[in-house]
């Protein structure tokens, strides 16, 4: 069965620093789709973050490129398998140079924390009780 994928394309100011940041979170870089201006960060079998330096990113749009440290252009939400995995990933992001974004959300059946990466893109990491999802 066909598995649809998502490729999130993000402009970055320092490609080397961004690659280091995401590998410190435990993700890998796919060298086949990476070069001196682009890094393909493998988040899962179906999720890839394409980090492009601003010059390369500009080749794909006629719009002004947002400065994510000053305005919000996207909120990227990723699921986690447990509350502990939420904390583990966000704590790794903060240790790698990211910054906290917003308050911890604990609704009992749903738990989430957020961080901004080195370029200000906001990543929300969320766990939901499987019983609540099915229900």
Account of the 3D structure:
The chain has 135 residues and is α+β, with helices and mostly antiparallel strands. It is built from four helices and nine strands. It has helices at 15-24, 54-58, 83-95, 130-134; strands spanning 6-12, 28-29, 38-42, 47-53, 75-79, 99-100, 105-106, 110-116, 122-128. The strands form two sheets. Strands 5, 6, 7, 8 and 9 form a five-stranded mixed sheet that branches. The protein is globular, with a radius of gyration of 15 Å. The relative contact order is 0.19.
Unreliable runs:
none
Order of helices and strands: EHEEEHEHEEEEH
Distance between the termini: 26 Å
Summarize the main sheet.
Answer: 5 strands, mixed
General form = globular
* Cα-atom radius of gyration: 15 Å
Helix content: 10-25%
Number of strands: 9
Strand content: 25-35%
> How confident overall, as mean pLDDT?
96
| Count of alpha and pi helical runs | 4
Structural class: alpha+beta
In terms of quaternary structure, the protein is single chain
Short description:
By secondary structure, the chain is α+β, with helices and mostly antiparallel strands. The chain has four helices and nine strands; from the N terminus they run βαβββαβαββββα.
